[in-house]
Amino acid sequence: MKKISKFVCVIVVLLLGGSCKKYLDVAPDNTGTLEYAFRNRNEAENYLFTCYATLQQLYDATANAGFTTSGEIVYPNNLTKHPLDETGFALLRGTQNSNNPGLNFWDGQNHGQAIFRSIRRCNIMLENIDKPTDLSVTEKKRWIAEVKFLKAYYHYYLLRLYGPIPLIKTNLDITASTEEIKVKRAPLDECFAYIVSLLDEATVDLPPVITNQVQELGRITRPIALSIKAEVLATAASPLFNGNPDYNSLKDKDGIALFPAAYDANKWKLAADAAKAAITECEAAGMSLHTFIPPANITVLPDSLRKVLSVQTAVTERWELNTELIWALNPTFPFQGYATPRLTNKSVINIFSNPSLFAVPLATQEMFYSDKGVPINEDKTFDYAGRYSIKTGDNASRFYIAQNYATAKEHFNREPRMYANIGFDGGIWFGNGKVNLGDLFHVEARGIETFAGPKDINTLNITGYWPKKLVNYLSVYDDGFIESSYRLPLMRLAGLYLLYSECANEVNGPTGDAITYIDKVRTRAGIPGVVSAWTNYSNTPGKVTTKDGFRQIVHQERRIELCFEAQSGWDLRRWKELQNVLSQPIQGWSVYESQPANYYQPHTVFTSVFGLRNYLWPIKDQDITVNSNLVQNTYW
């Protein structure tokens, strides 16, 4: 163990620039030696779970850049009470720096996990897996495959943040020289190739499904590995990493270019093939797009609400009942209270049990389509210019908007996914203990006198919109908060279908599977197929017929379908579109106003700060100083 400890200290100091003490937990608690850790099957299984440990800690969406920096949800600053770590949300306000980076997954600081430590754990597991004599050959193969997947995923997580990274293929021997310990960043294509090779090696020995769900739900399967491989290859093919001229000057100390200089169209073909293979594997395992099946206490459910609930419960349904869920993390999503508006008098009395602080910007709401299945600024039947005018809820919209309630005109005639995703002033809130059609809740958010309106800075929704999809309709906020838990998906079938549609378009244009798989998702969402929608309702009907136009369509489709699921922030980065999204001020309604005409005036909450350098994370300055072989990312 002294050898291991000494090695860990050296690699930490030179690679991470941190102290040794916190990195000594390379074996399970109360384990004195590696021999003990791998003396039998049970102890080795405990070590396997330490390899999973960091992965399970990634359930915290507030530490996920795909969630906090997407612009889909914003969070107030300057709170007098801090109910959660604001580091990730604060990055939109320009707090990122190289001296002390936020969400630092390189060193495990500032709400980031120490991922290099996790990779070392995986290497230790692989190096010692042969020691337990009572471990069967079949189980050994599966464990090796799981650890190789985890090792690949940890490298991939770092790559999405930092671009080229050191590849920790094996743990260095204690006799390694100083220069060997001073690791270098590998060229980007080499990083992607290594990650894919690990996933390929893992896939062969992973099970197609989890049969013992009580004990093993959350462990890696073949559909998970193939789906992540497709995502990795699509990331490699995307503009941020595929011939991006912004990083032509990024070279290591030996002058080796770390980014590929030329665009490679074949990368999209590899991604498309991988996505199709993943779909085939998932469907063979019995997966399909989820549809809501009403429980016995819901005796009447109109088709409009069924579509809304099919979208909402595709995220919040229990894993074992959700036919769409490919992968989620075992810890449950802990922030339903932040996404729920106050709907009752008791919820106001118990205001601090549910702060309602996750706020959805106006731009996110307006991203969702009209009920014709096209963007509201393209729909020739939609009054886009008059969208902020006032309209009263009527019988036709009664399952979406409270009757006789005055709200913004743009809340009418929208696609079911808008009503599934977003809670808004006047919007019906199915659930919270009420499921009878004649007695449903609706949100009232105008001014300080309403239940959901602003009370103080610590319970303020700063835009007037809530991320409704993140709340299980069975959860109840009244006399306290009674949560019906769920696991936030990392990958679900609808996202995989849209990934394949995106890749297929890049390979062959908007034909064949590119159309087929986007339409599978749109059909479940209750809107017309993509060709029909643009041909009949869009003022730019030719958009659907070109590769560039269809690219815009499928990008928006992914942002809509996967909204609030910690995916759009990563997509917008790999597409190099996040800077455009965040170039506009973050706006909401004038939430302190009580009259509709005054409330429905766009109000700038803050102006986000995002420049070209923010596409990649900075490596901490101290790490660059300690390890002379490391180079900083461009623009930092």
TrEMBL record:
Span of domain RagB/SusD: 366-636
Chief localisation class: membrane
Keywords on record: Cell outer membrane, Membrane, Signal
Subcellular location: Cell outer membrane
Superkingdom as given in the UniProt entry: Bacteria
A single Gene Ontology CC term: cell outer membrane
Alphabetized PROSITE patterns for the sequence: PROKAR_LIPOPROTEIN
Start and end residues of each SusD-like N-terminal domain: 23-214
Gene3D superfamilies: 1.25.40.390
Family: Belongs to the SusD family.
Protein name: RagB/SusD family nutrient uptake outer membrane protein
